[in-house]
């Protein structure tokens, strides 16, 4: 008998078709407003040390990371800030589909290049959203963990962040793989996406522990209210519910 009810629904929809950009399609909707609240709350957390580099992650795959990351990136760009979105989920990249740009070259091209100096500006693409640029994942590599934890990745973030107001990363989930352990300590903050009715309590707790061990600055969490209403949750404006909570880590003790 398992202690926690498992209701896992892994979907490959965003890999095939991209994430739903409600903030582009329905910018005045309640959900878009909730994404703006998430953005505002994250900015508030950086009063003393502005949050310039930020990643969204989750315990497992298919919990809404990409959907949340992409929509938050859109509303951030809408606020007039120069935003770079980096698709660092090298196992399940989706952002090129979401923003309909080529993924022939991208992050993995930069990370695997043997050139000491590289002009990365032509790897970065402007999206149809004003102020929002994107670095897609690039070809899927055999060794994502090694690449994301490499010094080259750290150097890339360090060199790129001054060209933007904020750099937002879509990173792999915490529990299954060790892709992001070194990476999360190099960025200003991490936000956990929690899928209501799917993310297990124990998994969430373990994710927080692992993030802490990796010296991540956990900014809070986004409750992604998928699934509570069954399939109807997939319609816009119904079943979506993004909330933002501070200090998950305190509650988890
Ligand atoms: N709030 C939501 N309401 C309805 N469907 C959602 C919501 N958030 C995510 N989804 C769907 O759940 C699936 C997984 O989302 P995705 O953003 O790709 O997760 P991840 O990046 O964590 O793997 C996709 O099919 C996506 O459309
Ligand atoms: Mg994803």
Descriptive overview:
- The structure is a single chain.
- This protein is an alpha/beta fold.
- The protein has one domain (17-251): 3-Layer(aba) Sandwich (Rossmann fold), CATH 3.40.50.300.
- The chain contains eleven helices and eight strands.
- Strands 3-4-2-5-1-6-7-8 form an eight-stranded mixed sheet, sandwiched between helices.
- Mean pLDDT is 85; it is low at 1-5, 227-242 and 244-253.
- Bound molecules: adenosine-5'-diphosphate and magnesium ion (MG).
- Adenosine-5'-diphosphate binds at residues 11, 13-14, 19-20, 58, 61-67, 92, 94, 224-226, 233-234, 239-240.
The proportion of residues in beta strands is 15-25%
Structural class: alpha/beta
What value does the Rg take, in angstroms? 17 Å
Helical residue percent? 25-40%
Helical segment count: 11
- Largest β sheet strand count, sense and barrel closure: 8 strands, mixed
């Amino acid at each position: 008998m398992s202690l926690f009810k498992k209701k896992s629904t892994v979907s490959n929809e965003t890999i095939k078709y991209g994430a739903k950009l409600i903030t582009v399609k329905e910018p005045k909707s309640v959900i878009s407003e909730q994404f703006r609240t998430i953005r505002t709350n994250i900015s508030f957390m950086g009063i003393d040390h502005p949050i310039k580099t930020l990643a969204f992650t989750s315990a497992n795959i298919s919990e809404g990371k990409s959907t949340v990351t992409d929509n938050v990136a859109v509303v951030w760009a809408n606020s007039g800030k120069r935003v770079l979105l980096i698709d660092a989920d090298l196992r399940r990249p989706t952002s090129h589909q979401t923003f309909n740009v080529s993924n022939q070259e991208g992050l993995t091209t930069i990370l695997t290049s043997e050139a000491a100096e590289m002009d990365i500006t032509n790897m970065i693409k402007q999206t149809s959203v004003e102020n929002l640029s994107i670095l897609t994942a690039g070809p899927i590599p055999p060794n994502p963990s090694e690449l994301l934890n490499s010094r080259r990745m750290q150097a890339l973030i360090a060199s790129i962040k001054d060209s933007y107001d904020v750099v937002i990363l879509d990173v792999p989930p915490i529990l299954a793989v060790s892709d992001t352990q070194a990476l999360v300590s190099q960025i200003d903050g991490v936000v956990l996406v929690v899928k209501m009715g799917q993310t297990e309590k124990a998994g969430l707790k373990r994710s927080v522990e692992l993030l802490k061990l990796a010296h991540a600055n956990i900014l809070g969490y986004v409750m992604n209210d998928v699934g509570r209403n069954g399939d109807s949750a997939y319609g816009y404006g119904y079943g979506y519910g993004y909330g933002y909570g501070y200090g998950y880590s305190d509650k988890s003790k």
